[in-house]
Each structure stands twice: as structure tokens, then as C-alpha cells.
Amino acid sequence: MQYLTYYDRRIIEKLLNQNLSYRAIGRALSRSHTTISDEVSLNSGQLGYSAERAQYYHEQRQLNKGNKKKLEMNVKLKEHVIAKLKEDWSPEEISGRLKEFPDKEVGYICHETIYEYIYSVEGVRLKLYLLLRRHKPKRTKWHARKKGKSNIPERTSIHERSDDINDRIEIGHWETDSMIFSQQKGILSVQVERRSRLVRLHKCLNKTAEKTLEAIIKTADSVPLKYFLSVTFDNGTENVRHTELRENFDTKTYFCDPYCSWQKGLVENTNMFVRQYLPKNALIDTTTHEKIYEIQEKLNNRPRKCLGYMTPNEYFKSLT
Question: Of 112, 118, 117, which Cα lies nearest the Cα of 136?
Fold first, then answer.
């Protein structure tokens, strides 16, 4: 079957704006409805379907065929990819940002092709795999623990959270966790806002309830109070003073089921990003607060697929 033309794409855009179904559009173009569905799915960005953007993406994909050669021929694209890898962007973040915010001088490349280049002969020679977060070609599966009991007083179950929190409709709902390091008392207290993915990192001298509460209060103080509406915890003993957040900030607190910290998966995933800079054997006790802040803002200024490749700082600012 022939590729859709720019003229076809203009018709698709026009009919989509008239709320016609994929089947109706397919009949108008004498194409299968699955062709229309695939076209819209593949070429719709954060701003919806546009014939002009869709044609640009199509042309870039055609140039991308035999991608290793494309990177060899397109010096600006190769330099851009390597520069962003060195800034700790993932291949998906590099590709997604180019898709959502096209740069005609650089072009477009899909994330799988970037991975192929990283593990090509040239990529291995340049040791580009060391710039990936886990330094591994295969992804690791995550598994949940078995359920158990908790001794946290006055717990409110995560299952009582409202749909506004669960569906990320409302801004101001946070998840928190404590990152520990090998044979050291110091920890890193991590908070992430569920909708914007805004990150706050605080170095603590130890994993006590007092120090953990101090860290979370610092996060509360870093944003307007109306954007600190709830916090979701696991059942670690460092979280026993959660009631003080209710009393002093009128902030609701929720808890995962025992041994089910995966239920606050956003902060768990954020911990993985932090480990890129602070592995478990890092000397957290001698790491400065300035270094912690630098890591925090690297995460906050990294484009995210779930935000349409805006950064958390950009997205949070747009909502507030």
C-alpha cells in the first residue's frame, strides 16, 4: 500500500476536527480504518494531530531508515544525541523532545534507533552505554513483595485516596521515600509531586522520624501551601510522625499496604533516576547539600515522556 500523502494528511486533520470516526475518514480516503488509526496514533503529539507535523515526522522516518548511516551522515544529529546522553537524558527523552519540539536543523530519530547506535561498534568504542542509567542493554523486571502487617498509628490506607489523586487530576499530591546507602547512617529523603513529577531531595543525618519529618517540611515550604495537599508513605518507622503534617499543614497522609511500596511507584521510579548519580555505595555522608540540589535540578530539568516531553519545572510552572 502506498504511503499517505501530505494531501491525505490535510484531509485527515480536517475530518478529525469534524469529529468523524476513523472508519468514516478511511471511507473518504479509500483506506482502511486501521491505516487512519495508525497514522493518528503514530503522529499525534501533545498538541494533537497536525498534517504539517505528521508529514515532517514521516519524512524524518524515511531519512531514518538504516539509522546508523543516518547518524554517520548527519553530524548535527549525532552531536545532539551524544550531548544529551552526556546530560543524562535517556534515548526516549532525546527522541521525544525532538518529536514534540522539532528542530529542523537537527532532525528526528526514534529512541530504539539511538539504542541501536549506542550498542553499535562505534557506540561501544565510544562507551556510550556508560551514559545510560543502568549501564545495561536489558531492562529489569519489577516484582512486588508479599503483604504483611504495619505498626504505623493512625494510618489512612492508600485505597482511600480520591480519584483526583489517583488519576493525577489535581496538583499538590506527593509521594515520599527514604534512600539508604551501604554502611552509612545518612539517607536521602525523596519527595515527588504526582502530576508534575517535580522532585525534592534532602540529605538527612539518619533515618529517624525526626529527620524525615524535617525533610518533608522542607519540601512543603518549597512550594505554596495549596500545592501540598497530601503525602503517600510506605510503612517504614521513619514515617510515624506523619500526623504532624495533618495538624500543622492540613495535609492528608496515606499509606501503602505493608510490604507494597510499589503502590507508590512514582517515587520508587524516581529513586532509580537518583541512583544514576548516587549508587548505593556512594558516600552520602560526605556529599554536600549543593551536590544534592544539583542532582535534584537535573531531574527537574529533564524532559519527561508523560509530560509531553516538557520538564517537571516547566510543567509545574504551567499549572501554577
Answer: 118
